[in-house]
Write a structure and sequence with these properties.
Blueprint lengths: L4 H8 L5 E5 L5 H15 L3 E6 L2 H12 L10 E5 H12 L10 E2 L3 H14 L7 H16 L12 H15 L2 E2 L1 H14 L1 H10 E6 L7 H10 L6 E5 L14 H11 L2 E5 L1 E2 L4 H10 L6 E2 L6 E9 H18 L13 E5 L6 H9 L4 E3 L11 H14 L4 H11 L8 H7 L10 H16 L4 H14 L4 H23 L8 H9 L11 E5 H4 L4 E6 L15 H15 L2 E14 L5 E3 L4 H5 L1
Parallel strand pairs: 1-7, 1-8, 2-3, 2-6, 4-5, 6-7, 9-10, 11-16, 12-14, 12-15, 13-14, 15-16
Antiparallel strand pairs: 16-17
Helix pairs in contact: 1-2, 2-3, 4-8, 5-7, 8-9, 8-10, 12-23, 13-14, 15-16, 15-18, 18-19, 19-20
């Protein structure tokens, strides 16, 4: 399909700052990738594209590489903002006194354990779990706004705990997701030559989904691009739904315009959705200005049901009918992967899960599961040991490992203890399997690229041993999980240049997660963003659920309307909006439901 005149103008606009406002289904990714390919063909130097999800980064990279010669592939770098900033911190952090061998702490339970230790070290009473989580939330909120202990003027207990917690992270050579952004900003600001080197290397920088930028991310972009002209932002303010993370579409539409004076382009034609869906979306967001180019009407229905059970049963039956008989609006046979069920919150899926399981219909939550954990204790121990191998200062995970084994912590040399100590006091850990785990650690210690060999050492021990079929099955699943991650890493890296530390950090960033998105997709609105499906069901459309009961202010109301707009525009051909007239509450009573006010708009 040829580009439209408006799309072609953007692709051909090479030099200078540029802002593209692009509505849903307007060919945003196509225009972005073709403009990158055009730049690479016509100009020298490298191109950097930043986005917000690993899936989007992968898609942009693949689509660009299909359009350019193989010898130019190295000239394009597509990353999430966190991934780009982590590379910056690991490679340049020494210029502000950071250790080069840092590892990412991503697990909330790990952070809470660090915070407990901060209270112990400060000789303060450890608060109960709820209060501890609140303390962590406040610390992270401060970090999101680049407010660290050294920036706080108060001299209270909170500042002391915050400082102790941060010092514990540093002594363990760890950083969290907020630290990644803060330290990258510090590097760019304190060492201006770093930003100059980056913009000498990357002659063009493009920011995808710019409506999702928050103020700290924008500060990083500004610090990266002083006196830099070739910056592009593309996004849609009507799809700004991450206000809870501080994102603000005005950064794209106002601040970027004031700071860079870009050429402004607008894409409003929707090539994705049928006219009924576009019309419904325009009633939710009249300012979206999306116009349908499809001659097809499509289907949009609002349906009510006696209760959530009846709602779930109808959705399941309708999907079975579509899978068997197809749709007049969809040219080809319909596959489960062509269908999504979207709910404002995840709890809406409980009855649907039961229906799908009982009727043996395949489904998945969001396609990519970024927090898959190992099922067997022995593989959890292997993973903890791997963290200590890549970061010998990682006292946190070393202690967790020994807790599984019920053995004492050998404080002096974690690595020597890890590779030689076969003491196991726990009856829950099989000693034969653990011995193979130690052998696997030693294989990795001798050569970090022998990851598959290390996994096979453990797998063969289990496969050839006298273990239950259930244990073998679970252990094989754990091995396959890590093999899949390593295989993806190998495809993205060069032999001789692979690092276990880098691999472990890529896992923490979710870059190596395996796509398990087979079957019908169950998605929250936030999980659905950027995706598209032939047929979409939006369930639980009652006041208090969608819109959410927590919506109070006009700003929250605007964002909730954006949520509704995003949900509707995931559908290409058919969209069904359903709601129960009665809902059973968790405490057992039934409550009459009022249909969503958004349905009246539609």
């Amino acid at each position: 399909m040829n580009l439209t005149k408006d799309q072609q103008k953007i692709v051909d606009y090479i030099d200078g700052p540029i802002l593209v406002t692009a509505g849903p289904g307007s060919g945003k990714t196509r225009v972005l990738t073709q403009r990158i390919a055009n730049i690479i063909r016509l100009r020298k130097g490298k191109v950097l594209a930043l986005t917000f999800s690993n899936k989007a980064a992968e898609e942009i990279s693949e689509r660009v590489k299909k359009q350019i010669a193989a010898d130019s592939h190295e000239r394009i770098k597509v990353e999430t903002i966190h991934s780009f900033c982590l590379d910056l911190v690991l490679n340049r952090g020494n210029q502000i006194g950071l250790d080069p061998n840092l590892s990412v702490i991503e697990d909330v339970s790990d952070k809470l354990e660090m915070l407990r230790r901060a209270f112990l070290n400060s000789k303060m009473v450890i608060p109960e779990e709820k209060k501890l989580r609140e303390e962590l939330r406040i610390i992270e909120e401060n970090k999101k706004n680049f407010l660290y202990p050294e920036n706080l003027t108060t001299s209270d207990d909170f500042r002391d705990i915050f400082e102790t917690y941060n010092n514990l992270l540093k002594s363990n050579r760890m950083l969290d997701f907020n630290d990644i952004l803060y330290y990258s900003y510090r590097i760019l600001l304190d060492v201006p030559s770093v930003a100059k080197n980056y913009t000498r290397l990357y002659k063009y920088i493009l920011i995808d989904e710019s409506q999702d930028l928050n103020s700290t991310q924008y500060r990083i972009i500004k610090a990266l691009t002083p006196n830099f002209e070739n910056l592009m932002m593309v996004g849609d303010s009507a799809q700004s739904i991450y206000g809870f993370n501080g994102s603000d579409s005005r950064i794209m539409t106002e601040m970027f315009v004031d700071d860079y004076n870009p050429e402004v382009f607008s894409l409003i034609e929707n090539f994705r959705s049928t006219s009924k869906i576009i019309e419904a979306a325009s009633r939710i967001q009249p300012d979206s200005r999306s116009s349908s180019v499809y001659p097809l009407e499509g289907e949009l229905q609002v349906l009510s049901f006696e209760n959530e059970i009846a709602e779930a049963q109808w959705v399941r039956q309708k999907i079975q009918h579509l899978l068997e008989f197809g749709s007049e609006w969809v040219e080809n046979d319909i596959k489960p992967e062509d269908i999504a069920i979207i709910g404002r919150n995840r709890y809406l899926f409980s009855k649907l899960e039961e229906e799908f399981i009982d009727n043996k219909i395949e489904f998945s939550f969001g396609g990519i599961n970024s927090n898959i954990e190992c099922e067997t204790i022995e593989m959890k121990i292997f993973e903890l040991g791997m963290r200590v191998l890549v970061n010998p200062f990682d006292d946190l995970h070393y202690r967790q490992l020994n807790k599984y084994l019920l053995r004492e912590n050998k404080e002096k040399n974690f690595l020597v203890d890890l590779l030689t100590n076969i003491e196991v006091n726990s009856t829950e850990v099989d000693k034969i399997v653990f011995k193979s785990v130690i052998t696997a650690w030693n294989i990795l210690s001798n050569n970090q690229e022998n990851f598959i060999k290390a996994l096979d050492e453990m797998k063969n021990t289990v496969y050839e041993g006298e273990f239950s079929e259930e244990f073998k099955f679970l252990f094989q699943g754990d091995v396959d999980l890590w093999k899949g991650r390593w295989t993806r890493y190998v495809k993205q890296s060069v032999r001789g240049d692979r690092s276990l530390s880098y691999f472990r950090n890529q896992v923490s960033l979710g870059k190596l997660d395996i796509d398990s998105g087979s079957g019908v997709s169950f998605l929250t609105v936030h999980m659905s963003k950027g995706l598209e499906f032939e047929i979409v069901f939006i369930v639980g459309m009652v006041n208090g659920t969608f819109p959410d009961y927590r919506v109070r202010t006009s700003v929250q109301e605007k964002e909730e309307l954006n949520n509704m707009f995003v949900a509707l525009t995931r559908a290409k051909r058919e969209c069904y909006l359903t709601y129960p007239l009665m809902k059973k509450m968790p405490w057992g009573s039934n409550k009459i439901q009022v249909k969503s006010k958004y349905l009246d708009r539609i």
